[in-house]
Specification:
The chain is an all-beta fold. Among the domains are: 295 residues, no CATH class; 83 residues, Macroglobulin (MG2) domain (Immunoglobulin-like), CATH 2.60.40. The protein is built from 3 helices and 38 strands. A 4-stranded antiparallel β-sheet has the order 2-31-30-29. The chain has a 4-stranded antiparallel β-sheet with strand order 6-7-8-9, with no helix packed on it. A 4-stranded antiparallel β-sheet has the order 10-11-14-15, with no helix packed on it. The radius of gyration is 25 Å and the shape is globular.
Length: 650
């Protein structure tokens, strides 16, 4: 049975940051230096004063994921806040297996990050480019989304936080290095629209965003009676003109909503079907679906809130109320049947003191899934029980620091006596979900969650990215596996390509410190503005569904992996004339052979490809001497072989 744990945390309104334990040693000039703050891996024998210590025994750990696969460091950034809640799609898997990806990037730690913009990298089928040294746009931006238009050009949208609106940067092809920046798109009189999410079908761009204000110089934006709402826009010509600008979704109105929320929404498109999800703490989590490319919409309340028109810090929730709400970290994908799947973190809320503007949030620690074909919320992922001591019913003995984003009080102590732990904004324990689907309708969800017993030395749990899957349309879900297994790094903000092929493809941010500099540094100085890494991972779906990654908990047995197992992609292009390419992934080095047979089983080609090292390789099949027709190619490594079908045309 899956387990749910409720953990108390104080949540305050406004921009907040986390706090430290009070006895952290300081230098003579009262500054915390980087050398004083380090990650601690209890399983390796290190421990912190007052924290449980589990001795490490050689051979008791599962193989680390880094021993099985290779992460690729595709870039860096000094700006470490990739999202306020939902991460969005920042990785694009092209039909030929190449990959384009973006993130919010800054080349330095200058005050205000004046060179902030879009970081971009491209995988050409054999290698990634060098990490960026400058943004793609000509002016300061953030929160990029990426898509491919019908002519093969690559386009990104990123917001202009100073004045609002978006810069569209475009390059003529995925392999081009030349970007052209547009003038500001979708600006709004007396408003600052930012935090976009984009999904594209052909040349139709569907874009959702929210408005920002600071209560002073940047005033709130009212549309339809909603303060700083989430809006929808659509361009039918690749962004040149906009048929719809900042429309409120039907049913998203002032009778149910008082305000919007930054990054509390998600969007997906498949053919002419478009899905928009809008959520947020104490707000309805609703799905809007269009089957005519955004012309008409049907609304479904996936998780209504019993607190209509909730105003942050103004709703008088009774102390004994116990309301379930989404945490705003949402994602959505449309499967191969046209059904929409939503994943999110959940919270319970009540007001422990109606005289102030705070609400008390005991937190679920799990991820949850909902779909149109099975509209009941189900647990689809949890943090991993590292010491196998957690009670699955109550969550007792789950060793994790209480999580809060609140600043230190005037006495220099955490509010309500909570110890330090880094939450991300107002999100739940398990957060930042990203969902993908493969050709067989298998679903894969990545999300980050705290590592039990793995603490930074000031008392915060480090996080890793977990992965779960469902092979029955979300009716049941696998146990969580640790997709990153990097016990001395904070691995967060996972963003998958919407489609999985033989792999799930995702990027994530790796940091030396829990939380972010922007949210968790506060007046403690515990999270310096240091460079973080952006990493790409491609994990074979067969390994995920076979449980190869494992939990990497403290008592898991060692597993010897078959070094010769490999994954073979469908050839591309297919059908083809002349040359076609096959991508293979090998867990470790081995000799490789290629055999091609016709539809009658007659061998027409046999090649020894020689020794191939571990990792990805491109195999080119020359079909120029083959007659048009159906053929089968077989790649053999030792005792293992994979056969796929291809078609040769004139």
């Amino acid at each position: 049975m899956k387990k749910v744990l409720l953990i108390g945390a104080v949540l305050v309104s406004g921009v907040v940051s986390a706090q430290s334990v009070s006895d952290l040693r300081k230098t003579d000039n009262d500054e915390v230096t980087k050398d004083m703050i380090k990650a601690v891996d209890i399983s390796a024998g290190e421990h912190i004063q007052g924290m449980p210590h589990v001795p490490y025994t050689e051979g008791t750990l599962e193989k680390s994921r880094q021993d099985v696969y290779s992460f690729v460091n595709i870039g860096t950034s000094y700006y470490d806040l990739q999202s306020n809640a939902a991460v969005g799609r920042r990785l694009l898997l092209h039909d030929d297996g190449t990959v384009s990806t973006v993130w919010t990037y800054s080349p330095d730690a200058s005050s205000g990050w004046p060179q902030r913009g879009t970081g971009f990298n491209y995988f050409d089928g054999s290698s990634w480019g060098a990490g960026p040294t400058a943004r793609t746009e000509t002016s300061r931006t953030g929160w990029p989304s990426i898509a491919e238009l019908s002519d093969g050009s690559i386009t990104t949208f990123a917001h202009i936080s100073s004045d609002g609106g978006f810069i569209q940067a475009t390059k003529p092809s995925k392999s081009s290095t030349t970007w052209t920046s547009s003038a500001a798109r979708l600006q709004y009189n007396n408003g600052v629209p930012i935090w976009n999410r984009m999904a594209v079908n052909g040349d139709t761009i569907h874009l959702i965003c929210n408005f920002w204000s600071d209560g002073g110089a940047v005033p709130e934006t009212l549309i339809g009676g909603i303060s700083n709402p989430t809006t929808y826009s659509r361009s039918d010509d690749g962004g040149a003109t906009w048929a719809v600008e900042h429309m409120l979704m039907p049913g998203y109105d002032s009778t149910e909503y008082d305000n919007g929320g930054g990054d509390t929404y998600a969007i997906d498109v498949k053919g002419s079907t478009v899905a928009v999800v809008i959520g947020g703490i104490a707000k309805d989590l609703a799905l809007w679906k269009s089957t005519d490319n955004g012309q008409n919409w049907t609304k479904t309340d996936a998780l209504p809130t019993p607190v209509p028109k909730y105003k942050w810090g103004k709703a008088l929730l009774s102390q004994d109320s116990n309301y379930v709400t989404n945490d705003g970290s949402v994602d959505v994908v449309i499967d191969n049947n046209g059904d929409c799947h939503i994943v999110t973190g959940l919270l319970r809320i009540y007001d422990d003191d109606t005289t102030d503007e705070s609400i008390f949030i005991p937190q679920f620690f799990s991820m949850y899934h909902w779909s149109e074909n099975s509209p009941q919320w189900k647990i689809c992922g949890t943090p991993i029980d590292m010491d196998l001591a957690t009670d699955p019913e109550t969550g007792d003995n789950w060793t994790i620091a209480s999580e809060t984003t609140a600043s230190l009080g005037t006495d220099g102590q955490p509010p309500s006596g909570l110890s330090y732990a880094a939450r991300y904004g107002r999100t739940s324990i398990s957060t930042h979900p990203s969902i993908s689907v493969d050709a067989n309708n298998n679903l894969f969800v990545t999300y980050d969650a705290p590592l039990e017993l793995i603490f930074h030395d000031f008392g915060a749990n480090l996080r890793n990215v977990n992965v779960v899957y469902s092979d029955d349309n979300g009716d049941t879900w696998s146990d969580a596996q640790n997709a990153t297994q990097w016990r001395t790094k904070e691995c967060v903000f996972g963003s998958q390509a919407r489609m999985a092929d033989d792999y799930i493809h995702f990027i994530f941010q790796a940091d030396d410190y829990p939380g972010t500099h922007l949210q968790n540094n506060g007046n403690t100085g515990l999270h310096p503005n240091d460079e973080v890494g952006i990493y790409y991972a491609a994990i074979p779906t067969s390994d995920i569904m076979a449980g190869i990654l494992g939990a990497n908990n403290l008592s898991a047995p060692s597993r010897d992996l078959d070094a010769k197992v490999f994954v073979v992609s469908q050839n591309y292009p297919n059908p083809f004339a002349g040359m076609t390419t096959v991508t293979i992934y090998m867990r470790s080095g081995s000799d490789l052979d290629l055999t091609v047979t016709d539809i009658l089983g007659k061998e027409v080609m046999n090649k020894e490809l020689g020794y191939k090292t571990a990792g990805n390789h491109q195999i080119v099949i020359d079909g120029s001497q083959l007659n048009p027709g159906i053929y089968f190619y077989t790649l053999t490594s030792g005792d293992h072989k994979v056969t796929r079908k291809m078609k040769v045309i004139d």
